[in-house]
Amino acid sequence: MGFLTSPALDDTGLVVLDRLDLSIDPAEWRGLEYVGWRSSGITRFAPLASYAGEIECNGFWNHTPPRTDKDGVWVAAQVAKAPTLQRLALEPGANLGRCRVIELQPNTYADAVYNLHQDDNNRLNADGTGWVVRSWLNLTDDADSLLILRSDRFDPATEIRLPLRAGSRIIVDTQRFWHAVWHRGPAPRYALITSWTSGPQLDAYIAEGNGDQHPTSVDLPAHLVAEAQTELHRRIEERRRALEAQGIVMEPVESLYE
Q1: If DSSP codes are grouped into helix, strand and coil, which group holds residue 30?
Q2: Which residues contact 112 (CB under 8 A, 6 or more apart)?
Q3: Which residues of the chain have pLDDT under 70?
Q4: Local structure of residue 120 (DSSP, 8 states)
Q5: Is 51 buried (19+), middle (13-18) or exposed (0-12) by CB count in 10 A?
Q6: What top-level branch of life does the organism fall under (predicted)?
Q7: Whose CA is closest to 21, among 181, 195, 138?
Q8: 123-177, pLDDT tens digit by residue?
Q9: The pLDDT value given to residue 38
Q10: Nearest Cα to 102, choosing from 73, 64, 140, 68?
Q11: How far apart are the first and last CA of the chain?
Q12: How would you class 106 by CB atoms within 10 Å of its CB: exposed for 0-12, middle for 13-18, buried for 19 or more?
């Protein structure tokens, strides 16, 4: 039977919506409680919705009973501080799983390429139900920063680079893409990340936002891309040797994050 997917993402696996004219008090994200979690770069997360309404970021399948990334429970103390962010996450009317604000410190393009990862949102997802995708709403104006997407982790020719202005809205099938953010700084970047379930509600939200399935990718100098590729393989080999010294065999392609 397969899964119910959003037609707007079937072709390219991503869609960029019209930018929002944000008028949110930064206290809504700066006043939240943040915790560390595995992700790309030096990050912290402020959970707004989690498996059971606790301040934690673990995948829903790692709890008892396990479930896919759906039916998130709001963290009362957090959404009390961020009612506008909660409203924006609920706006599509689609089923919502994990919802959190990410705080990312400045990094390099090579860092982002090394930290490219795929998500595992649909683990335990039942056949015939909606496919879970991820949305980003950039809260800070990071005009020089880029969301990096690759369908092949090791092939820069598959790379798409999307700018992250304040109010940027991007929805991605993050099990289809390896992804990370190159944040040029100088201050931390904040964005609202929400897991939404594909279906009629999400389709209508994308249509209302004039979703673009073929956004323009930002060009980078060829030498910068080549240098990042060299650094990617150097770091992977360095990690392989470190793990080997501990008697651990590294998988050929790792998915280290969730």
Answers
A1: helix
A2: 40, 41, 146, 148, 180, 181, 182
A3: 1, 38-41, 251-258
A4: -
A5: buried
A6: Bacteria
A7: 138
A8: 999 999 999 999 999 999 999 999 999 999 999 999 999 999 999 999 999 999 9
A9: 66
A10: 140
A11: 26
A12: middle
Cα–Cα distances in angstroms (integers) from residue 26 to residues 32, 141, 170, 178, in the given order:
10, 12, 20, 29
What CATH number belongs to 7-245?
2.60.120.330
Distance, in Å, from the CA atom of 223 to the CA atom of 229, rounded to the nearest integer, reads 10
The phi-psi region of residue 124 (left if phi > 0; otherwise alpha if psi is between -120 and 50; otherwise beta) is: left
Question: How far apart are the C-alpha atoms of 182 and 83, rounded to whole Å?
Answer: 28
What confidence score (pLDDT) does residue 208 get? 98
> Which strands, in side-by-side order, build the sheet including 73-74?
14-17, 169-172, 132-138, 189-197, 96-104, 43-50, 73-74
**For residue 248, what pLDDT is reported?**
87
Tell me if 77 sits within 8 A of 49, measured CB to CB: no
Label residues 127-149 b or e (16+ Cβ within 10 Å = b): eebbbbbbbbbbbbebeebbbbb
- CA separation for the pair 232, 215 (Å, rounded): 26
pLDDT at 258: 41
Q: Exposed (0-12), middle (13-18) or buried (19+): which is 239, by Cβ within 10 Å?
A: middle
Helices (H), the chain: 7-10, 27-30, 76-79, 83-90, 109-114, 200-208, 222-245
Triad 219, 222, 225: Cα angle to 5°: 85
> What pLDDT, on the 0 to 100 scale, is given for residue 1?
61
151's tokens:
């369908």
